Amino acid sequence: MNRKSVDKTILQVNMLGGFSLVYGKKPLPNNYSGTSKMMQLFQILLYAGREGIPRAELIERLYGREELEDAGATLRVNIYRLRKYIQKLNCFENTDCIWFQEGLYRWNYCAVPLERDTDRFRLTAEEALQETDPDKKAELLKEACRMYRGEFLPELAGEEWVAIESCKYQKLYVDCINEASALLRERQEYEELLELSAQACGIYFFEEYYLMQIDCLMALGRYKEAMEIYDTAAAFYFEELGLEPSEEMLERFRQMREKIHYNASVITDIKQGLQENEEKNGAYFCSYPGFVDCYHIVCRMAERSGQPAFLMLCTLVDGEGMPLTEDARLDSYMDKLKSAIRSALRRGDSFTRYGNNQFLVLLVGIRQENCEITQSRVSNCFLSYGFRGKISIRYEVYPAAEENETNPLFW
């Protein structure tokens, strides 16, 4: 495919992952919000390019949701403002960049040629997907994936026309990275695929891209880095979406855990590596997989010692007792609840975040009648942050015992 080098007279228009303009080698300032009507008009005209856009469609895109007495007059006002804004850029030698001919608004492509990142990405992606030569296909797929820097005009994601165009580019990107994954795995080019999957995770928080990263790192023998990616993904899905790791993700966790080896030569080095790095006072906070291991150990110990243990689920609720899910300050509330649980419980207790509005606590060596005292301590500590009357904590307590257990024959 022929790719024309960027000439200084060409206006580079970037719309994937955000809106920006570069004229020659000079970035142009953007002094207006991307959601302002004038800037939306600018973006629509740049995207329409030399083909142009009918006046009626332009009005629909700009004002379709608004009840205006004279949308045409409002459009003319914004056209006037946009022309003034373009003149202030002092780049186009007072050229009238906006034409209106035969019912179409057009960018003056003859005076100021455009080169859009959307066009470059689309053409490269389509060529990559149609290519049959494996070597050429691999290079084109990598090039297309690197070109995609994010969703189309993300500031205008709520606009219908933007959503439609965004879906087209997203599908092309997903098709390219999926084919790149299959091809690069076959060729064992894990470093290349690792780069693409890391970029993908920065754009879309899809589990498949985290799994792609983990698989690449494991194939390269970099298990500790793979475990870090797992921790990042698990924390995101728990804290932001309230989801447990999938079976695929847990399987990767088990594979990594079996492969990680440490090279400490003496027991003192091993002990040093096991020391806690975070806050040591109060209850122990851990990841969900770590909490699962704690739970299994406590249950096994309880079989022999008879020491009681309980699971306590703490859920943030509003004044009517309904779980908090949409509150803008939910993350702040959860941070305070985390501090309250850590402060109110003992060092021998452990807890983890369970979803976007819950913590799961493992209470060891406590009797059921004392669980209410523990709940009261947590609530009092939480309410001391000034939340009294606004939100509260709902508690559910269950004995911590493995179901369907059989008593061991030997100790």
TrEMBL record:
Query: Keywords on this record?
Result: DNA-binding
Biological process (GO) annotations held by this record are:
phosphorelay signal transduction system; regulation of DNA-templated transcription
The organism's superkingdom is given as Bacteria
Protein family per UniProt = Belongs to the AfsR/DnrI/RedD regulatory family.
Annotated ranges, domain OmpR/PhoB-type: 1-113
Q: What is the lineage of its organism?
A: Bacteria, Bacillati, Bacillota, Clostridia, Lachnospirales
Residue numbers of the DNA-binding region are 1-113
InterPro entries annotated for this entry? AfsR-DnrI-RedD_regulator (IPR051677), BTAD (IPR005158), OmpR/PhoB-type_DNA-bd (IPR001867), Sig_transdc_resp-reg_C-effctor (IPR016032), TPR-like_helical_dom_sf (IPR011990), WH-like_DNA-bd_sf (IPR036388)
A molecular function (GO) term: DNA binding
State the organism named in the record: Eisenbergiella porci
* Name the UniProt record assigns to this protein: OmpR/PhoB-type domain-containing protein
Q: Which Pfam families match?
A: BTAD, Trans_reg_C
